[in-house]
Give the backbone structure.
Amino acid sequence: MRKIVISCAVLVVCVCTLNAQDIVGMVKRVKPAVVTVVQQNAFGLDDGIGSGFFISPKRVVTNFHVIDGCSGVKIVLNDSTIVQVSRVVTYDTTKDLAILELPDTFSRKVQPLSLKPVLPEQAERVYLVGNPLGLEQSVTDGIVSSVRKLKEHGTVIQMTAAMSHGNSGSPLLSASGEVIGVASFLLQGGQNLNFAIPSEAVQQLKSENPYSFVPTHKSYCGTDLNIVDAFHVDTTWISNTPSGLSPSEQTLWKLKLSAMRQHWDSSMVSGSYNRVIRAIKRLREGFDVEKDTITMSTAEMAISEAFGINDGDGRFDSDQKLMLHGIRESLYASMALMYAQDHITPVATVSDLITNRAQAWQTFKKDHRYVIVAMCDTTKIEDLDAVVMYKDATGNWKAVASDTGPRGLTFLRFTAPESTEYAVIWRVAKYNGSLKSGIFGSISFDCN
């Protein structure tokens, strides 16, 4: 009797080992067909990533939200080869699907993945291959939690296979390597609430429903411009500290410049110097005015603490003041919320009246990840664009992030290539009505 039990145990181990080997082989087989989908903006910058997979020798499936609002798209193969997408053949915003087509010159032989247009069984084991947070060709597994209908998405596959930003468009695979779904979204606030669009939705896409990439030209208040040319840096208040200044003189220079940036008369700094220095010492413990100097960020915070926000100079009417107050309250609420979350720190806010364009100088640290969100009075402004630029080693101003989508808010996400002052530039593309001004506000977060 004991021998029979041992034999069964050995048999179970052998079967499990064979199954594991089958999965390893399946993953090796499908990985060459899984690609990174890279969004590109009007400045030619990489502006985000997703995942995708080949369904034919020159066509790749991904999520629509991965390519929405892009001026161009490229894919990166598993051997790091980069290929520019020629067009979007078809798409469906409701199903969150898009099919990309590669140029005729693309000749790489890639074995496309097979679609399985049959809904999986509950508790069926599934596998996801994609690029979470840019970690290419990552594999996660889980089970099908349920197949259900959601109001905004229709039939979806709920699964426990882990997803992160960058997984959008990843193939959801069966144990045999067939695609049973396309990873699309997750629900925050729970655990393993991840969802994929069934493969049959890919087969049901219209054969020709082309999507136009966002053009690199745009009308700004009626004038057609190359978007790159529409943004330039105003260097009037750049913090190029004059050479030969002592530490205390550098501090005074930065404080006066910060005061002017915030619409205060720079002479106020000299008149209330001790008051401003006390503000600096509250911000920097142990600060010695004769030996130490400060960054522009510290200078701007000290001016704000010493003098407050300058919104009483007659630039605003009563309605504008009310709107300005509402936007500032929203920004402060966002700051308080972000402070409560780990590794996310608000670093700067801007709120003002914008007429055509606005610019702010902000100090960012090399290799830190940042998010800048701007909102505006949408009753006055219909379309607001934004760009982040810095001066590179050659002395040229270079964009690191942009949002030129047709909406009244902007969202910028980037990793700072250098530790220096950056120019954040906003420009109105379209107003609502004849009044050519409106209130806007922005908040910057350090996501490290």
Notes: The chain is about 25% helix and 35% strand. Residues 2-30 form the longest helix (29 residues). The chain has a mean pLDDT of 88. The longest strand covers residues 138-150.
